[in-house]
Amino acid sequence: MAVAIAAVYFVLSVGATMMFRKHADRLIDGPRLRAIWAEGLTAEARCTGIRVEEGQDAEGGFVVHRHPTLEFRTDDGRTVSFEERQGRLSPAVGDVVTVHYSAADPEGATTRGPSFVMLHLRGLVLGVCGFFALTAAVVAVVA
């Protein structure tokens, strides 16, 4: 009986892990960013303007979001302009930054560079949650 309960705990934990992994990856735009980084195309972009967005955070505090408009030239000579919405950089007008882009969709460029966590998020979540799933199954058998 204990083994059956452990198996149920394990299956439920693995299912929750898979759903969490997929949701977390989509939430941080992981598939799109990994595809851009895999192509390896970069360019120097100049900040041509900054749009300021004011609002409130969850606790009612005042927050300001800066969205720079960046312009760069692709390898095929096309000039592309885009607004960075998720970057961590806040360049001033006229500053030059490195952007990563895809040849198929250069307007979807980003200033975010590859990071270990973003590149390996799926495996990290799977490993940590898999460990907890196995632990839950072992605890169910022992208890």
Task: Report strand %.
Answer: 25-35%
Average pLDDT rating: 84
Structural class: alpha+beta
One letter per element, helices H and strands E, the order comes to: HHEEEEH
Low-confidence sequence ranges: none
Rg (C-alpha, Å)? 21 Å
The largest sheet is: 4 strands, antiparallel
State the end-to-end CA separation. 11 Å
Count of helix runs: 3
State the share of residues found in helices, binned by percent: 40-55%
Globally, the shape reads: elongated
Strand order of the largest sheet: 3-2-1-4
Q: What's the total number of strands?
A: 4
Summarize the structure.
This protein is of the alpha+beta class. Helices cover 44% and strands 27% of the residues.
Question: Which terms would index this structure?
Answer:
single chain; alpha+beta; 143 residues; 4 strands; four-stranded antiparallel sheet; elongated
What does this structure look like?
The chain is of the alpha+beta class and 143 residues long. Helices cover 44% and strands 27% of the residues. The chain has helices at 2-27, 30-39, 116-142, and strands at residues 41-56, 62-73, 79-83, 96-101. It has a four-stranded antiparallel beta sheet with strand order 3-2-1-4, with helices on one face. A hairpin with a 5-residue loop joins strand 2 and strand 3. Helix 1 runs antiparallel to helix 3. The chain starts with a helix and ends with a helix.
List the helices and strands and how they pair.
Layout (H helix, E strand, L loop, with lengths): L1 H26 L2 H10 L1 E16 L5 E12 L5 E5 L12 E6 L14 H27 L1
Antiparallel strand pairs: 1-2, 1-4, 2-3
Helix pairs in contact: 1-3
